[in-house]
Predict the 3D structure of the following.
Amino acid sequence: MMWRLDGLNRMVKYEVLVTKEFEEKYYLLPKEIKGRVDKILEKLESEPYVGKPLHYPFLREKRMDKFRIYYLIYDKYSTVYIVNLSGKKDQQKVINTIKSLLSLYREEIEKKFKV
């Protein structure tokens, strides 16, 4: 497990942001599944590296029954960006799409935190 500490050795809480695509899929989920997703997103605020790495250390997948939550970790901004949600059968297609959009996701995060 990895923890990010600030200069005073305090644990840094990560901000969890979601894409519109994730949000649209989330709202179609049954209520009980939404509750479980919410708990995972809450856990990612303090433990962003809990998911399985996918090709890069910052691209992760958190499995929940038949669903997978895909997210990117931006340590520089203390941010977890939830980018998609899928079932097992669409897993590789979704991962390939995310990999092709990595630069776009980075731009979105940098734009949000630009001073």
Summary: Confidence is low (pLDDT under 50) at residues 1-5. The radius of gyration is 14 Å. The longest strand covers residues 56-64. Strands lie at 15-18, 52-54, 56-64, 67-74, 79-87.
